[in-house]
Amino acid sequence: MNRKLLMLDCVLAAILIYAGFQFRREWWATRARDAARLHVHVPPAPPPPFTPLATQPPLLASGYASIAEKMLFTPSRNPNVVIEVPPPPPPKPVPPLPVYHGMMNIDKSGP
Which of 83, 76, 78, 56 is nearest to 66 (CA)? Predict the structure, then answer.
């Protein structure tokens, strides 16, 4: 039985050494593949064609008048002053109508 255990230990050691060599070979292959990817020279893309911008008209102060007129944060910034006109007074009430109490017949052609 002692021989069987010694033989098993040798086989396991050989498997372990073989696995170590395979692992080391894969590790070196991976490093070489990563180094090859890192050192690849990629040519830069050509720049887009140059197109000059359109010329801007000169800035004038009168162009900013509409900005100053706008109500930005407060109503007092509005240049249009609102003049509140008081409402017209209500019409005077109609005076009371005369009261009718009876009738008189005043005739000029008498008896």
Answer: 78
pTM for the full model? 0.36
Cβ proximity of 77 and 71 under 8 Å: yes
User: Is the dihedral angle over the CA atoms 77, 78, 79, 82 positive or is it negative?
Assistant: negative
Cα–Cα distance, 25 to 19 (Å, whole number): 10
State pLDDT tens for residues 22-54: 999 999 999 999 999 988 888 999 999 999 988
Query: Which amino acid is present at 38?
Result: L
- Distance CA(3)–CA(10), nearest Å, equals 11
Q: Determine the Cα angle at 50 with ends 49 and 52, to 5°.
A: 145
C-alpha–C-alpha distance, residues 78 and 70, integer Å: 6
For 104, the token pair is: 């008189």
- Give tens-digit pLDDT for 48-89: 999 998 898 888 887 777 777 766 666 666 667 778 899 999
